[in-house]
Specification:
By secondary structure, the protein is of the alpha+beta class. The protein contains eleven helices and 20 strands. The radius of gyration is 24 Å and the shape is globular. The chain binds ligand L2XS5X25 and nickel (II) ion. Nickel (II) ion binds next to strand 5. Pfam families: Ni_insertion.
Length: 435
């Protein structure tokens, strides 16, 4: 399994992460090909080499060819020397520069042109043909950003608007990073403590404190670094990668490094403004993990409400939820609710049962379980690309199962029975994954 360490000594932003991962070896063509299938503005995505206080690093060069209705497509040669620059010109608002150096004409609340709601972006990702894990990771990152922006601006997260220019940027940065992780086959991510920077930054809303409120909101619970530099070191997108994708916070793992990549930020400081990413190859060992089981049984709760509890528990991170019919005191038919969860989600799920069901108590037990290490792989089939889950024991592949959602989608698309697609995928997987 590949492990990625994010060394955020100069903070983290969307473009720093994408360029660092490309420097580490992520295939830029693979990233471009997948991004081009999305319904977004035409863009060019390139990487240039820059010197950051003596460190030769990769820097993102992302341009959009404007599709605002009042504007025409502009040729690729436009603004060649300006790097991560949007050739948008709006007929309203003021121009501001984000820390990673691109200029937007941006005046929240007075827009005549299109915007993208968080829910529209999430829907676009859901409906996309992105590889399974890249899709899940991208959704997780956008949900974190939308939650934080929603909280700051006092809005429903689904209704949060990404300014059209910012939306395009974010889509490329977020989905690009998740595709880069896929290209490198990263299974686990560890991040160092994160410095935020201090001072003020001029954004569309006005002169804001650093860390920007959305960044600060996202970084709740994340260990911060004791490194104080004037300027914005960590942006909301960078913080969202840390919050949504990282499995563990800590120091560099005590393992042999395989490869190192450097992604440059746009600003210059007295220190090298780079994100360093390190790739490790971790030996697979049979894994043991702790899980918590929460239980209560009810004889006075409706079927509808029961279904709602199952849905909400799964949304709140339950690994599994199941109902067992039981006979309770006074011969009453009832239902035993069982929730399996990782220890970190125990409190939230306990609260769900106590607050939203008729129970007056919840039983809790800790279990240890042995699990197979698993990887997701994309298989080429006559029904298109389908993701399979590969289970391994002591490095040996012992089972391969197609992902239900992908099989379902293909079954509808080709109007064939679910089981037919399933069998074809299993057969193709056995040929394409060495077993
Ligand atoms: O435009 C909006 S809504 C906005 C809100 C906030 C808040 O903290 S609230 C912050 N920012 C700033 O935008 C840039 C770009 O960040 P990305 O993560 O999209 O690269 C950054 O300087 C933020 O602090 C914008
Ligand atoms: Ni605008």
């Amino acid at each position: 399994m590949k492990l990625l360490f994010l060394d955020c000594q100069s903070g983290i932003s969307g473009d720093m992460t994408l360029s660092a991962l490309i420097d580490l070896g992520a295939d830029i063509n693979y990233i471009r090909e997948h991004l081009r299938k999305l319904p977004i503005d035409p863009f060019s995505l390139n990487i240039k080499i820059v010197d950051k206080k003596g460190i030769s690093s990769k820097q993102l060069d992302l341009r959009f060819y404007v599709t605002d209705s009042e504007e025409q497509l502009k040729p690729p040669s436009h603004a060649l020397e300006r790097g991560h620059t949007h050739e948008h010109s709006h007929d309203h608002g003021h121009t501001h520069t984000h820390n990673h150096g691109h200029e937007h004409s941006h005046d929240i609340g007075h827009h005549s042109h299109s915007h993208r709601k968080a829910s529209t972006i999430l829907q676009m990702i859901e409906n996309s043909e992105l590889p399974f894990r890249a899709k899940e990771r991208s959704l997780a990152v956008f949900r974190v950003i939308a939650e934080a922006e929603g909280k700051i601006h006092g809005m429903d997260p689904e209704e949060v608007h990404f300014h059209e220019v910012g939306a395009m940027d974010s889509i490329i940065d977020v989905i690009g990073v998740c595709l880069a992780l896929e290209s490198l086959d990263i299974g686990r991510i560890v991040a160092s403590p994160v410095p935020t920077g201090y001072g003020k930054i001029m954004i569309a809303h006005g002169l804001y404190p650093i860390p920007a409120p959305a960044t600060a909101e996202i970084l709740i619970g994340v260990p911060l670094a004791d490194f104080h530099v004037k300027g914005e070191l960590t942006t909301p997108t960078g913080a969202a990668f840390i919050k949504a994708l990282v499995d563990e916070y800590g120091n560099m793992p005590p393992l042999a490094m395989e490869k190192i990549g450097y992604g440059a930020g746009k600003k210059d400081f007295e220190h090298p403004n780079v994100l360093r990413v390190v790739l490790f190859n971790v030996e697979e060992t049979p894994q043991q993990e702790q899980i918590t089981i929460l239980e209560c049984q009810l004889d006075d709760f409706t079927g509808e409400a029961m279904g709602f509890i199952m849905e909400k528990a799964l949304n709140q991170g339950a690994l599994d939820v199941y109902f067992t019919p039981v006979t309770m005191k006074k011969s009453r038919p009832g239902t035993l609710i069982t929730i399996l969860t990782k220890p970190e989600n125990t409190f939230v799920l306990e609260e769900l049962l106590l607050r939203e069901t008729s129970t007056f108590g919840v039983r809790k037990s800790e279990w240890s379980r042995r699990i197979l290490s698993r990887e997701f792989k994309e298989i080429q089939t006559v029904y298109g690309k389908i993701t399979v889950k590969v289970g391994m024991l002591e490095g040996e592949i012992i089972k391969i199962y197609p992902e239900y959602e992908d099989v379902k989608k293909a079954a509808y698309q080709y109007d064939v029975p679910f089981v037919d697609v399933y069998l074809v995928v299993q057969q193709a997987a056995r040929e394409q994954v060495i077993i």
